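User: Before I run my own analysis I want an independent prediction to cross-check against. Here's the chain; please return only the structure tokens and, at the end, one sentence I can use as a sanity check.
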Amino acid sequence: MIEAKLFHSKDGFCAFSLEGHSGYAEEGSDIVCAAVSAIAQYIIGAAEHMNLPCRYELEDGLITFSFSEETSTEQKRRMQDFLVPFEAALKELCKAYGEYLKISCLEV
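Assistant: Structure tokens:
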């Protein structure tokens, strides 16, 4: 199962962590893992494209993203245009494949 932790602060969505493998199908054929991985990597790519100061990790079974201390309030605000739909997409995947994906929303 993929465990998604979505972190929110008073300024909005600020970080996420995706851990594990869905177990939906064999590696290379797992549409749940592929979908979650693709949308998470899109967020990282968007942040890099915007030259947004952030931290991220891409490892087998682990993807994390968070703003760095240098990220301005304006940059965080602009990134919400990507992070809010990311959260909605994960929740839609969870509706369809809930036994393979668990989402926790946490306040920080």
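Sanity check: The longest strand covers residues 2-9.
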